[in-house]
Design goal:
Radius of gyration: 22 Å
Order of helices and strands: HHHHHHEHEEHEHEHEHEHEHEHHEHHEE
Helix content: 40-55%
Number of domains: 3
CATH class of the largest domain: Alpha Beta
Distance between the termini: 58 Å
Length: 367
């Protein structure tokens, strides 16, 4: 019988099954391996599964392509991240359209406390590069993970600046990990494997086709706490990433530019239409995201007789002086997002915490 990992890879290779339906299949069948052993009559009961898809799954006995992929990842020390695995980017895992499998080669933890995506034009100005370098320089020493798309311009400049400032950086590819695109960025990509990593939803041999880049952009938007746009026209990949990030309820920032400049149109439009916060430097980003002293130990929980056990668990995760993001609250407990949201509302009604911009929470002063 094929291994569980082989089944995870094979599930991504079944025709007409995207990420959303794949999740439904796993949820209804109980495991990824059970999907391939489920009877057709039961598969047809799953929403979104018709006769053609049920037949495709029930008759799938040839795992040759999945076996080839498994050999490749084992040979090249590539980690296969399934959406239910602990190492899968937890921020991304909550997005319904997130890939069920990611291929990852690198050293860094994708679930660090602070993750920023930086995107922008492929032809940055001196001004754009100066702002970018200053921003990343001011993030030095914060442990922030820098994510971008390894493309020309702002993307590769973000990766290189992060490497220079000893910040881990991850490149999300629109191709398989065996095809670094553009190829002139191979040296930077090699360094990133040791100081960050390379990430893709595509298996080896997959070319960097045009339709893959919007798919890559949703990964960048989904796995970050915040997305920063530095120079862009009104259309293009950077604006797609910003819109995706807004749709995922992420914080979006844009660096303003000179009126009339083509590469200022996108960021200025995002700010003008309230789709992005105006950003000028890294210190401002840290302040607006509430990341000051994020790693400081949490204060000991005071005793409140009117808190139940679950409320005490959540309250204990919220610092007195600093703020904590809802992403970290999701990660720090086994409670569901809806349970956490309800508990936060109750704590706020009781006057124990207050909500800050950016989906951040802080204890009320004096408590």
């Amino acid at each position: 019988m094929p291994s569980d990992l082989l089944h995870k890879i094979a599930l991504t290779q079944l025709p007409k099954i995207g990420a959303v339906l794949a999740r439904e299949l796993v949820a209804y069948c109980g495991s990824v391996s059970a999907v391939f052993s489920e009877r057709k009559s039961n598969l047809l009961k799953i929403p979104g599964v018709g006769h053609a898809i049920a037949d495709s799954i029930a008759r799938h006995t040839n795992f040759k392509h999945a076996e080839e992929e498994l050999k490749f990842v084992e040979k090249h020390d590539i980690e296969v991240l399934f959406y239910l695995d602990d190492h899968y980017p937890f921020r991304l895992s909550r997005m319904r359209d997130a890939p069920i499998v990611l291929y990852y080669k690198g050293q860094t933890n994708l679930n660090v406390a602070q993750v920023v995506g930086i995107v922008g034009t492929r032809q940055p100005s001196d001004y754009g590069l100066e702002v970018l370098n200053n921003l990343i320089e001011q993030l030095k020493g914060t442990g922030t993970l820098i994510v971008s798309g390894l493309a020309y311009g702002i993307d590769i400049a973000s990766h290189r600046a992060a490497l220079q400032c000893d910040l881990d950086t991850v490149g999300v590819l629109g191709s398989g990990l065996d095809r670094i695109y553009p190829s002139v960025h191979r040296n930077a990509a090699r360094r990133m494997v040791d100081q960050g990593g390379l990430l893709s939803e595509f298996g080896h041999g997959v070319k960097p086709d045009r339709e893959h880049f919007p798919m890559r952009n949703r990964i960048i938007a989904g796995m970050c706490d915040a997305v920063v746009v530095i120079e862009s026209d009104r259309t293009g990949g950077s604006m797609i990433t910003a819109d995706l990030a807004n749709g995922y309820h992420k914080d979006v920032f844009a660096v303003p530019g000179r009126v009339g400049d083509k590469t200022s149109r996108g960021p200025n439009l995002l700010i003008q239409t309230n789709r992005a916060h105006l950003l000028t430097d890294g210190k401002e980003l840290i302040k607006m995201m509430g990341w000051q002293e994020r790693d400081a130990p949490l204060p000991q929980l005071e005793i409140f007789n009117d808190l139940d056990e679950e409320e005490e668990v959540i309250y204990a995760q919220i610092p007195r002086q600093d703020a904590v993001s809802i992403d970290l609250l999701y990660r720090s407990t086994t409670l569901s997002p809806s349970q956490i949201a309800g508990i936060l509302l109750h704590l706020e009604f009781k006057g124990l915490i207050r909500t800050l911009p950016g989906k951040l929470y802080r204890r009320c002063s004096g408590i």
